[in-house]
């Protein structure tokens, strides 16, 4: 697939996320009308891996509503969020203002981040939880991140495990509750087209642009993209909890997140690399 075709599909995704934003703002999933702390979106191991953030320049790529970006600011970071959706950036700015958080938001495609940020360098680049599947070219993504990092800077990718993405979210008619492999684990088969009137949240139907495109990326592809860009992988974690119950049989844990009672399988991973 050519870069021009990638750009066309990413513009469709951009329109789709513009259309999703009002649905997400009104959803119980995000709970923006409740007094819920933004740190609820983080696994405990993330803060251990990220370390002290006070006085650090932190960039959150594909930030959507900026809920996690606010958490970085509250931990003392000079936080910047970047997203390609104009509606998402406008909503994130409003949410940050209402919460009193000092966050800067920039609207740009990830691949254009270096120019959009005027060559600014960061101590930490954070990304994940449903972000990488909207990027067709991870080699280009990793090279962009390297340019965004200061020497010694860290990138932290916290993503839904490709095994999770391979499992069907719900049984087909006539099937039992068993989890079945329904989608590719590995990338390379091209984009998956979705035409969905509802997103991963509750709320009304999406109006307007309902087409979106996702690319599968196995763990090896992510690691090789980062190392190929000259970054050194320092830590890889696999976790068995999610911040929401994807399947009815999941149980809530002491952390407030959700896990399967059995089998224990990776649902999330955290990958730390340095320049």
From TrEMBL:
SUPFAM superfamilies according to UniProt: S-adenosyl-L-methionine-dependent methyltransferases
Q: Mind telling me which Gene3D superfamilies this protein's record contains?
A: Vaccinia Virus protein VP39
Print the keywords alphabetically. Answer: Methyltransferase, Transferase
Record has Transferase as a keyword: yes
Name all Methyltransferase type domain ranges: 59-155
Domain of life of the organism encoding this protein: Bacteria
Q: Name one GO molecular function term.
A: methyltransferase activity
Q: Which Pfam families match?
A: Methyltransf_12 (PF08242)
| GO BP terms, alphabetized | methylation
InterPro entries hit by this protein: Methyltransf_12, SAM-dependent_MTases_sf
Its name, as the record gives it, is Methyltransferase type 12
Q: Which organism is it from?
A: Streptomyces variegatus
């Amino acid at each position: 697939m050519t870069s021009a075709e990638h750009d066309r599909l990413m513009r469709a995704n951009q329109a789709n996320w513009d259309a999703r934003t009002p649905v997400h703002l009104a959803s119980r999933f995000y709970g923006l009308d409740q007094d819920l702390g933004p740190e609820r979106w983080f696994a405990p191991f993330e803060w251990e891996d990220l370390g002290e953030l006070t006085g650090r320049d932190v960039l959150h790529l594909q930030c959507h509503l900026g809920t996690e970006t606010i958490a970085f600011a509250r931990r003392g970071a000079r936080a910047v969020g970047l997203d390609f959706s104009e509606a998402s950036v406008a909503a994130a700015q409003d949410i940050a203002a209402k919460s009193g958080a000092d966050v800067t938001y920039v609207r740009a495609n990830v691949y254009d981040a270096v120019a959009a940020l005027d060559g600014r360098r960061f101590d930490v680049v954070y990304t994940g939880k449903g972000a990488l599947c909207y990027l067709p070219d991870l080699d280009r993504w990793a090279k962009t991140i390297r340019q965004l990092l200061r020497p010694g800077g860290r990138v932290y990718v916290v993503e839904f495990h490709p095994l999770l993405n391979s499992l069907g979210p719900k049984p087909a008619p006539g099937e039992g509750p068993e989890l079945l492999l329904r989608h590719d684990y590995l990338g390379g088969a091209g984009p998956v087209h979705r035409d969905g009137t509802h997103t991963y949240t509750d709320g009304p139907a999406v109006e307007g642009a309902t087409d979106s495109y996702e690319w599968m990326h196995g763990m090896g592809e992510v690691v090789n993209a980062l190392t190929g860009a000259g970054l050194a992988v320092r830590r890889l974690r696999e976790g068995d909890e999610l911040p929401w119950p994807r399947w009815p049989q999941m149980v809530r844990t002491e952390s407030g997140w959700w896990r399967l009672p059995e089998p224990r399988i990776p649902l999330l991973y955290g990958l730390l690399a340095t320049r």
